[in-house]
Amino acid sequence: MSLWFWILVACVVAYLTKLLGYLVPRKVLANPRFARVAGTLTIGLLASLTVVNTVATGQGLVVDSRIGALVAAAVALWLRAPFLVVVIVGAAAAAGLRLLGLP
Amino acid sequence: MTASLRHSPGARVGASIAVATGLYGMSFGALAVASGLDVWQTCVLSLLLFSGGSQFAFIGVIAGGGSGIAAASAAALLGIRNTVYGMQLNALLHPTGWRRFASAHVTIDESLATSTGQTDPVEQKRGFWVAGLGIFVLWNLFTLVGALAGDALGDPKQWGLDGAAVAAFLALLWPRLRSREAGAIAVACALVTVVAVPFVPAGVPILVAAVVAAAIGWFGSGPRGEGLEPDVEPKREATS
What we know:
- The complex is a heterodimer of chains A (103) and B (240).
- Chain A has five helices and two strands.
- Chain A has 103 residues and is mainly alpha-helical.
- Chain A has a domain at 63-103.
- Chain A is elongated.
- The mean pLDDT of chain A is 92.
- Chain B is mainly α and 240 residues long.
- Chain B folds into two domains: 2-176, no CATH class; 178-230, no CATH class.
- Chain B has helices spanning 2-6, 9-22, 25-34, 39-49, 52-63, 68-78, 81-93, 98-105, 109-116, 121-153, 161-173, 180-196, 204-219, 234-239.
- In chain B, α6 (68-78) runs parallel beside α13.
- The longest helix of chain B has 33 residues, at 121-153.
- At the A-B interface, α1, α2, α3, β1 and β2 of A face α4, α5, α6, α7 and α8 of B.
- Chain A: This is Putative membrane protein.
- Chain A: It comes from Conyzicola lurida.
């Protein structure tokens, strides 16, 4: 039940965040720091989420097949593969390495 | 109307982006149920939260054993760029009445990119709505497909779904790493995360990285809007 609560909180906050953009006076737009913080936050959070999903298991740091998924995805992105292909390549790399007996 | 829409570059770009983006709702649906959400919770996130990065962030934290509040915080912080998009789109399209509230819901990376990629005001409007509504419909449809298929797959690790999550986050980050400063921010936040993982509860390292990223943005001197580049380049899509 508590997960439902946080799902709904996230949904309400997300909508209000979007709506806020349509309601703020133009003066706030003039503050370049606001746009920059929004931009660096996006980069920082995505980098952090990538790392957490690659090497973290709860509070432990673990090296396993997910590293292979990261490398394979990077190669696919470097070759300009579209999003869905990158995701499939990542899954295939992790699944393949596990078939070979890696954790 | 249909004939003029067929020859509308804004609508055509919007439609092609909608198809390309809508399909990866499937990976969200599959990953969400692998993270422990049920099919209803997964679909509610796509219907009501409707922002790919934030949705992946939410389930990414839950998958790592993080709490609901950490998941909601990560999703909320990642959505802050949508405020900037809303300001840009409000200035560009100035929607009024109920359209303003509908516009807000379909304000995402892709609808912004499609709209701002057009030069004619009518095409900017068409591009925004075709991309925004098109992605909304397809994203929700394919979320359901992915959630149901993922539910039927069994052990998510056997299918490499944790590897798929890693690839999805890297693919969301990749297009934003166009400048040296963006790369430096990504590396700094990645390092902070690795160091924080053993010391704080699951989910919190992401919030620590968010504080570091915000501080760099606040005190830094890089170009304004660093990292706000959308995931798609509408002009390139239009010619291909």
